[in-house]
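Write out this protein's structure.
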Amino acid sequence: MKMKHVYQIISCLVLFMMVESDLFAQKDFFGMQTITVSDQEFVLRWSAKTRNDRYMEEFLLPSENFAGFIQKVTIECSQENKSVEDEMRELMAKLAVKKEQNIVFSFEQIESPVEGEIWIEYVQGNVQGGQSFTMEWNLNRYRLVNNRVVLFRVIHRAYDKELNDFMKIINKKRDKWIKDAASFQMETVKVKK
């Protein structure tokens, strides 16, 4: 009787592992298993396609995972026939709501060093019970590529103990982070059919 239970438990674990691996399998929509931003290589760790023809891929440094990453790069490609300005307005509206909820601390459209792009910078936190647990500096680059709006987002994140100094770190490293983000060639993003 005990052996039967052990067999059932092992069978359930094997089945769970098979399902789990399919849940987190990455489909490479853009033909980029890795990307380089400045001098750092990021590895594709997650991807999805939504019903409204939006493709998303998230990249982390090889040594990081989603539970505790310090840097993340996201690439999104929207449906055809949408404008960069529409995407930017949607984000700005969402950020305004989040700012009222004290989730976003600051946001603004900044001057893009790359012609033909719109850049939005914002700082947000995961706040629970009046306490921050994570804080992020985000930079979104929007560009029209092959009649699709491409979003390239760079995130730098801090956790619990680093939160007090994170705004100082942002002020110190912001210019470098912007220069690093500008190094990625967005015109290389194409949806594979």
